[in-house]
Task: inverse folding
């Protein structure tokens, strides 16, 4: 019932998209295609797991993670700007994209594990 590892890869790239676009402005068509592929794959190959995805998105943990990631992104850029260390180089933005992707994948994997444990205990899904 778990989401496949490649799904988290998609989400990681999309989480770092802002900084990837800052580093490589001409990469936006590739990110649009990747987002479209992500949606298409999610609605086709993950069809059986849509129930899990819906249950995960209804969970408070997933929404907290989403808001925390947005807050982290904004807060980090504001704090770096305040300290006079604003990201201006392509390398800085790539590193920030990697950090955001890693944090996103880690948090999503944690939320999935916690939610699956709770859903199994409640009998809403089977192993």
Result:
């Amino acid at each position: 019932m778990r989401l496949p590892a490649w799904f988290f890869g998609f989400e990681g790239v999309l989480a770092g998209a802002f900084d990837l676009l800052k580093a490589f402005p001409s990469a936006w068509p590739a990110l649009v295609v990747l987002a479209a592929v992500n949606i298409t794959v999610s609605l086709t190959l993950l069809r059986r797991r849509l129930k899990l995805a819906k249950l995960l998105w209804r969970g408070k943990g997933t929404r907290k993670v989403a808001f925390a990631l947005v807050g982290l992104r904004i807060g980090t850029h504001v704090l770096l700007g305040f300290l006079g260390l604003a990201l201006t180089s392509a390398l800085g933005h790539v590193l920030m994209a990697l950090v955001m992707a890693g944090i996103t994948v880690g948090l999503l994997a944690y939320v999935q594990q916690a939610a699956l444990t709770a859903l199994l205990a409640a009998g809403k899904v089977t192993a």
The mean pLDDT is 86. Helices lie at 5-15, 17-23, 28-44, 50-58, 60-82, 90-122.
